[in-house]
Amino acid sequence: MDLWYTRCPLPTASGIAIERGMLDAAFSPQGISIRSLNASPDRTVREAHYDHGQRGMFRQGGSMPPIWSRSRGAETVVLATSWVKEYQALIALPESGIQGPAGLRGRRFGLPRRLNDPFDYWRAMCLCGLEKALRIAGLAMDDIEIVDLPVTERQIAEGGASRTGTLWRGQARARRQSREMLALIRGEVDIVYTASAPGAQLTAFAGAEVVVNIGEHPDAALQANNQLPIILTVDRGLLRDRPDVIVRYLQTLMDAAAWATKHAEQALAIIAEDVSATREWVLEANGANVHQTLQPALAAPHLEALESMKDFLLRHGYIDRDFSIADWVDSDPIKQALLERGAHATGI
User: What is the reported pTM?
Assistant: First the structure.
């Protein structure tokens, strides 16, 4: 039996479990092999990160691609969520003269448009960030000018380099926001959205100022975006045929998250590798306790935020078919994983 996994370049229990060989240790004694989508030279397999088209695949990361694929008929299930503090901001160069959120009115926002990806999640994420920032500022979309920034490069690079490596690596990862930042520096736009550790680093590199700090807003509903919450999904067929595998996978992620809470420096090193940033920028973007926030859960506020992401994509035409988030989530596996893990921990 073969299992596949993929994770976004975010702080995740998956990243810890993969790097420490915990998934291999959990499944190889059962004769089950497990590997990254990046191990495949087949772009169709690698792009299952978007469409969830690979049988036996676990995906932990942002919610927008799984919502998109589910709306298109992908038979998937949400198994768990997590909420990791994240730097998110609208930024501008000092010479723009923008003074705080109210200064957004009448300004040009750079919105990337990827021409060759099956789902342009980054454009959707930037637009969502703009919508939240305008709400914080008491403005509407009509109060700002959208400037399209076409990008021909694909987000997912060529694969086959690593059995365990992430899809998001190297030059493609480093250039994720190059089109927007160049437009900002050249004066083609006044404002762009950025996020995560690389976004915090870009802000500093450009000498940019934070116009709206979305990530620090006290209302979690306004923080919600593609990467908040992080969700774990799997294909429904695997859950139906091998619920024991699903439970074991969840338990392994729980073990990885528990290990991270006790090994901060090692966990930070793994997270930094996954997100393509240094430890300093991980701490800046995700907070000093990031290693303590990786535990899989199914919290009601996370599911409410997931609902808001689905509604956002529907409202802006990224998906054209509505569906029930409640029906998409299956809480039985995580309940079983917690029950069995607790029994082992107490010697029952």
Answer: 0.94
